[in-house]
Amino acid sequence: MSTGTIGLRNGAEMSRCNAMLCRLRRLINRLRGYDYARGEVLMPSARRIKMFRDNLTVGPRVLDMGTGSGVLAKLALEKGAAEVVAADVNPAAVEAARQTVPGARVVLSNLFEKIEGRFDTIIFAAPWSEGTIARPFHHAIFEDGVTGRFLKDARGHLTETGRVWVQYSDASAANFSLFLGWIKEHGYAIQREWTLKDWDLFERKKATICLYKLAPGNVK
Ligand SMILES: C[S@@+](CC[C@H](N)C(=O)[O-])C[C@H]1O[C@@H](n2cnc3c(N)ncnc32)[C@H](O)[C@@H]1O
Asked: What share of the chain is helix, strand, coil (3-state, %, to 5)?
């Protein structure tokens, strides 16, 4: 057997091993309940979604901004929404959400660019880490001011009694303080707040994940 063949065989074995390791890592993360990536799409942690499952209330028309895998759009339908629109800037997420939740209208949109009309409930599980967006998946992780832009534009898409639900984390202290500033700057009142301590897979540390129910203006 020539050295070239051995090299090729070792190469193939190495990539099989790598693929197995990747699958194993994904499985361990899933068992631990962490957020993790499948291709370019963020797969949500069970604990993070449980926060929404336990607390989210929806009106008839719901927008799930940054739908990712579509998990929250699906939850909104389960909770009785009559109509769910789901949006994401990442084409792979749009594809995944269409599979997860055929009952929703899934739109490729940079925030509200392609979104029309008003909603009783607008949800955004926002990205919260510091970093540069270099590939589609990074939109799920790195905050580039997107939550501030979201909060600004969401006001124009709420019905009179509409509410915004945002999930964020203090994993990056700098971003968390910006986030709290945006809530004030764009004139929202915090109606309810829930927190949980969780391991942040990407920051590699424990952080507090928060879920906020926001009302526009000074509504209490
Ligand atoms: C933290 S992930 C949440 C995904 C999913 N909603 C969940 O809870 O698992 C944030 C999502 O927002 C999307 N996103 C980020 N920036 C966006 C933008 N400008 N317009 C639309 N979606 C955006 C990302 O692609 C990602 O799917």
From this structure: 40, 30, 30
Q: From CA 103, how far away is CA 85, in angstroms rounded?
A: 9
Kindly write down the DSSP assignment for every residue of 46-102, as one continuous string.
Answer: HHHHHHHHHH----SEEEEES-TTSHHHHHHHHTT-SEEEEEES-HHHHHHHHHH-T
Give this prediction's pTM: 0.87
What are the pocket residues of ligand 1 if the criterion is a CB atom closer than 6 Å to any ligand atom? 42, 44, 65-69, 71-72, 87-90, 93, 110-111, 125, 127, 139-140, 146
Q: Which two tokens stand for residue 15?
A: 């990539």
Residue 177 CB contacts under 8 Å (≥ 6 apart), including other chains: none
92 alpha carbon to ligand 1 midpoint, in Å? Answer: 11
**Chain segment 142-201, per-residue pLDDT in tens:** 999 999 999 999 999 999 999 999 999 999 999 999 999 999 999 999 999 999 998 777
**HSE (CB half, 13 Å, CA atoms) of 74?**
13
Taking the centre of ligand 1 as the mean of its atom positions, its distance from the CA of residue 14, in whole angstroms, is 33
| Spatial separation of the C-alpha atoms in residues 36 and 115, rounded to whole Å | 28
